[in-house]
Every structure is written in C-alpha cells, then in structure tokens.
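## Example record

The block below lists the input lines for one assembly entry, exactly as stored, with component labels intact.
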Amino acid sequence: MNSERKAAYALVAPAVFIVAVFVLSPIVQAFINSLYRDTPFSPKTFIGLDNYRTLFSDSVATGTIEFTLIFVIVSTALEILIGLGLALVIHEHFKGRGLVRAAVLIPWAIPTVVAGVMWKYMLNDQYGFVNLVFYGSNVANYVAWLASEWSARMAIIGADVWKTSSFAALLILAGLQSIPEDLYEAARIDGANAVKRFFRITLPLLKPAILLALLFRMMDAFRVFALVYVMTQGAPGGSTNVLQYYGYQKMFPEQQFGYGSAVSVLVFVMIAIVATILIRTVRTRIYES
Amino acid sequence: MRRVVFTIVIVAVVLFSIGPFMWILNTSLKSPQTIAERPPTIIPDLQTEFFAAAVDEHNFMRYVGNSAIVAGLTTLLAVLVGTLAAYPLARLRMPWRRGILSLVLAASMFPQIAIVGGVYRLLLKLGLLNTHPGLVLPYTALTLPLAIWILTSFFKEIPSDLEDSARVDGCGPLATMWRIFVPVAAPAVFTTAILVFIYAWNEFFFALLIMTDPAVQTLPVGIAKFPGEYMVPWGELAAAAVIATIPLVVLVLVLQRRIISGLTAGAVKG
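Predicted structure tokens for the full assembly:
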C-alpha cells in the first residue's frame, strides 16, 4: 500500500512540477505585481490598488473592457447557434459524412494567425472576396471594412465565429449522439413532426451539452488575441482593442509591468467567474447521471 | 425535394468551412500579374512564383523547421509526463487525487496574459528566451491538462481484471502501468499526441513574446510578422499561410474520427 502511494506520487510529481512552475507560480506573481508600479524608468514601488483604479477610470481601458464584453457575448451566442446547426447536419447519416466532418474541422485546425490573415485578405479594400461578392466589378465602391469602427468589430467577431463554431459543433454533436434513437421512434409513432421532435426532444436533452459548449467558448473568448493582433491591432481608434491585447501592449511594448499585470488579473477574474459556473454545472451533471 | 434541400445545406456547410481557405489557396497560386487585377479573378493561373518567393526570399522553411521542432518536442514531453500522471490519477489510491486533478484542470483555464509575465521573467533568468526549450516548457505546462484529462478518462474505462491479473503475477504499479495500460491506451495516447501537436503548431501568444529572434521563430510568428510595413506582400503571405496550414489539413482529413473523439472525450464523460 505504502509503496503504491509512493509510486503514485512519483508518477504525478513531474506533471505537478511543470504546471506549478510555468502556470501556477506566474499567476501568483501576476497578482502580486499588479500592486506595484513597475516600469524601467522608476524604482519598483508598492502602490496598492492604484493600478486597478486607473484600469476602471482610464477611457482607453474602459473602452477595451466594453468591446471585450461585446465580443464575448456576441461571438459565443453566434458560435452556439451556428455550432448547433453544424452539429445537426454532421449528425445525419449521408454519403461522404466523414469528408464533411473533416471540412467542418478545418477552421478549428487552422492556426488562428492564419485565420486572421485569411479574413484580413477576404475583407481587403482592393482584392477582397467580400467586396467582390457585394460590388462585383464595380471596384470604385469597394469598402475598407477594417477601417471603420463597427465593420471592424463585426469582422473580428465574424472571424472568431468562423474559426471556433466547429468546436462548439463537436461538443453539441457529442450531446446529440447520446440521445437514444428510440425516443425519436416513439415520438414519430405519436405523430410528432420534425419541428416538434426538435423542440420537445432534441433541444431539452441537448441543454447540458449546449451549456458546456457555451461556457467553454466564453472562457476562450475572453482570451482573444491573435485575431486582433493580425487583423486590426486594436484600430481604428482602439475600437477593436480587447483586454488580452491591451494587457500585452502595456506589459511588453510599453513595459508597464505592474499595470499590465492588473489587466491580466482582471481577465483572470472574469474567466474564473465563468469557470466556476462551468465546474458547478458539470458537477450537477455527474450527480444527475 | 427534401433531398435537394439537404444537399444544398451540406454544400453551404462545406463552403462556410473551407471557403476562406480556398480563397487564400487560390491567391497563393496566382502570378504577380493576376493577383493585382481588380476586380479579383476567381480562377488562378496556377503559378508557383509566390511559393518560390516565400521559400527563397523570405526563408520561410526556417519557420517550418522551428515549428516542427517545438511542436514535436512538446508532444513528446506532454504525452510522456501526461501518461505518467494520468495512470495513478485514474487507477491508484492516493490522497489529494481529486485536488490534483482539479488544480491541473483549473490551470488549463487561466488566460495566457496572466501567465506570460512570470514565464517571461523565469525564462530570462534561466537564459532560455529565444531558445526552443524556452517555448517547449511552457507549451508542455499548457497542454498537460488536456493530456491528463483525456488519458485519465481513458484509463478509467479499462476493466480492472486486466490490472488484477497483472498484480497476481507479481507486477508492481510501475510494471502494471508499463505492461498493461500503456499498450491498451495506445489509441488514446495517439489522440492526445495529435491534439497537443496541433496546439503547439498553432500557438501564437507565447511564441510572439518569447521568440523575438527571427532565427528561432515559429510559423504563426513568422506569418504575423511577415515583412512589409507599408505594402503587404499578399501573394507571398498567402503562400506562407498555405504552407503553415497544409500539414493540419492532412491531419484532419486522415484523423478526423480520432480528433473528434479526443475533443469530446472530456465533454461526454462530464
């Protein structure tokens, strides 16, 4: 028994060590650093919660928080809707389903940086496919989509929805596969049509899977960075700036280590709230089953 | 009628999924003359000049090599360390089991921005900035939760009589793991390896901050920082994007089933 326990600890130790050194300890440091003014130009000084006061009063920072929240809410909502649609399609039996499933996986597999480059080019004001679709050969009307506030915001959200809906689709597909076929049979015998079957059987039984996909996607949406870096760098006028990009700007190019840490703690707290809800949901699911 | 509608839906799904990639592939196969045409032409003239330029002038294969090294080493390390940890977490009686598992899971949810400061300073101290291990170590830490999650849920499913008979034969926990679990778990280990590889191949945030020297940069950084301050060289960039994506498209086409089962492993088992 004792030797089993020793072996268990020895086997887990390397993993715990790596995670502790490269994930847990840096998080603790971020919390501590957020209480200091830490720039290359002045000595490191303890300033309490001043960084957080700036974070919630500075207009650039609050604008960034606002767009981050818009981004998280709109993109996750769309991803769940489109993911549900995709999941319903790839759940059906048809010839070539494997290939269609592979196609659906492609956006998930493509590096986010490449997805950003692709969409930047799709939206290009000279050679973009989107302009070709809207204005055809009327090149004088071609629009610089990423140059104005709302279309740039929509572009970032759209690119994220394209990239990550397939992940939501897979989680929902797993939920669909767990619904027993005979439920549908019974409903069919009772004369329920497809629409009724969807709202009375599919949707209620999918609720846990949809919730899981929603929370996973939300946590990830708070971490959006690469799309913003590649497509807009926060422009025009900071309208597409998001917290992770803002924190990066402060911490690295501007070398405001303490303030940047405060930004990162805010992202951490936002995600922690979503994660807590997620863990609670998953737990109740285990107890139910 | 129903069949026609369904076919249209399928075509729409496929176009939505691969359309943007087809457009960048199309662009990469144009010649410098056709790429500048307005309105853009739909049919490429199937030239490979941009690929040649990306490889020769921009030395793009260097990024491919760096990505292969970093993603390969990360996969090896994460799968090895993850398998070692997942076995006791799934099968052995140990105190703190649940605590360790939840801590590791929580680690996967942390935002990169909250970690990168500490990681950067640590790597600076160790002299590992701008080195391959400097990226492999944090990537391993970030992918271990996924590896442990998939492997633990898989190890739990293995019937315990296999284990018992090994015990009767006098195998200790280590020998049981090595002789019984690792061979049975080969498919799960493989699935984990694919997902870790894709993560490391695609990761951008840490790569951007840790690898500032172009000689060691990985593909996503190479693409994001593609030269051209004022005029974006779209043709070369499109070719580079295609080069970075092709290995992933192949992986997805060949291993679609495995990837889907790996990604949903956690979700299905709750």
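Chain B has 13 helices and no strands. The domain at 59-269 of chain B is CATH 1.10.3720.10 (MetI-like fold).
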